[in-house]
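In the current project phase, the collection of sequences with tokenised folds has grown. A representative record is quoted in full directly below:
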Amino acid sequence: MAIVIAALLFLLYYYVAPAVPWLMPKCMFHEFTGYRCPGCGLQRALIAVLHGDFAAAIRYNYSLLVTIPVLALYLVAWVLRERLPRLYRFLGSLTTFCILLALMLAWWIGRNIAGV
């Protein structure tokens, strides 16, 4: 069932989202404040990645340069949690959470100061 849902979401983002942009939700933080949140542009970036346009995806949200490798590392640690228990525990630790939170906050502030 999960594979079917994932396939439907893939098809939705691949075919429908570029053709019907009003179907995709807008960032409420940006709508109310005019500032960009850390995730602003990620929907467009995802669509660009699905279409193989990685350069455009990076331009939509530069945090993808860090986010994609970190998510891949989390996926590997989860899949291999029996073989790599130290990595699995480290990624699930409060220290790692605080580091990632600090990076996200720095990106949030920096992107609004720099205008990216």
Observations:
- The radius of gyration is 17 Å.
